[in-house]
């Protein structure tokens, strides 16, 4: 792997780690970053999915004690069993819909302009949800303050909301967090559950992507995939810790305005020809 390729891989890994858990769409940023870096192609699409594992390892490390408690308590602890069931139920909608429609989504939506539109619409929805959330919490507190207070129907609703992230530019974390807030969860509980929900969702996508591309990949690709995964892990580790502190005293409006501004920039540069976005 030459120096220029290594730099591109590291940049893509950092972009993945920094954006995976923020409501600004890691997939959208990877598509746009890859376009600017001329780092595109079928193998790169697999790379972009596989390096998500690095971000997930960061979450697993941050919540290693909670994950260990759940795993060791599955046989006898009702609380652990209920938590695991909630994660599985929330995971299923996106998994099923992804298997059914992944080809169509990749063919028509994995392009800069559709991604830009998803950025803008998602930003507007975040602003709407935050305003609604503020109005409701002034009247009464959130229905679910802690993830242990969730019901099965709450998990299903969040899973359906996460399914919207199959549209590139929507944001998996944004769909699950904002969806959870829309359905009555506190901002902190919504963010934490989104972290846990990311584990089966992204690891499942990684394994499935590797399996589908098994004939296109070789041992020569291991350094590129490994370097990207490590870069994603490091950047995601710091991002997760920062986000947990941030949500304790801030809303998501800043991310909404960022999405709107970024999406408008993509549309303007694409329309005027200032930047030729690869597809």
Question: Any overview of this molecule?
Answer:
With 279 residues, the chain is mostly helical. Helices cover 76% and strands 0% of the residues. The protein is built from twelve helices and no strands. Helix 1 (3-19) packs parallel to helix 11 (222-247), helix 6 packs parallel to helix 8 and helix 6 (78-109) packs across helix 10. It is globular, with a radius of gyration of 19 Å. The mean pLDDT is 89.
Overall geometric form = globular
Structural classification: mainly alpha
- CA-based gyration radius: 19 Å
Give the N-to-C terminal Cα separation. Answer: 24 Å
* Percent helix range: over 70%
**In DSSP terms, counting alpha (H) and pi (I) runs of 4 or more, how many helices?**
12
User: Based on DSSP secondary structure assignment, what is the total number of beta strands?
Assistant: 0
| SSE arrangement, N to C | HHHHHHHHHHHH
Report the mean per-residue pLDDT as an integer. Answer: 89
Low-confidence spans: none
Largest sheet: none
Q: Tell me what portion of residues adopts beta-strand conformation.
A: under 5%
Task: Provide tags for this entry.
279 residues, mainly alpha, 12 helices, globular
A few lines on this structure:
This protein has 279 residues and is an all-alpha fold. 76% of the residues lie in helices and 0% in strands. α7 runs parallel beside α9 (172-182).
């Amino acid at each position: 792997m030459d120096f220029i390729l290594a730099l591109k891989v590291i940049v893509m890994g950092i972009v993945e780690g920094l954006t995976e858990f923020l409501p600004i769409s890691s997939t959208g940023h990877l598509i746009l970053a890859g376009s600017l870096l001329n780092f595109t192609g079928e193998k790169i699409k697999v790379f972009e999915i596989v390096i998500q594992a690095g971000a997930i390892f960061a979450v697993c490390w941050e919540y290693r004690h909670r994950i260990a408690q759940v795993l060791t308590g599955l046989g006898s602890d009702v609380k652990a069993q209920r938590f695991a069931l909630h994660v599985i139920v929330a995971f299923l909608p996106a998994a099923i819909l992804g298997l059914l429609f992944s080809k169509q989504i990749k063919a028509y939506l994995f392009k800069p302009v559709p991604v830009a539109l998803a950025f803008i619409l998602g930003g507007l929805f975040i602003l709407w949800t935050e305003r609604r959330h503020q109005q409701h919490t002034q009247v009464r507190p959130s229905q679910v303050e802690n993830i242990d207070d969730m019901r099965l129907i709450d998990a299903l609703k969040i899973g359906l909301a996460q399914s919207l992230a199959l549209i590139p530019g929507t944001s998996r974390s944004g769909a699950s967090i904002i969806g959870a807030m829309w359905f009555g969860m506190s901002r902190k509980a919504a963010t934490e559950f989104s972290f846990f929900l990311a584990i089966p969702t992204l690891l499942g996508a990684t394994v499935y992507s590797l399996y589908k591309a098994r004939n296109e990949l070789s041992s020569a690709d291991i350094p590129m995939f490994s370097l990207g995964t490590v870069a994603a892990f490091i950047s995601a580790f710091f991002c997760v810790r920062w986000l947990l502190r941030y949500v304790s005293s801030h809303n998501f409006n800043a991310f909404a305005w960022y999405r709107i501004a970024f999406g408008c920039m993509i549309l303007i540069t694409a329309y005027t020809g200032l930047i030729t976005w690869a597809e």
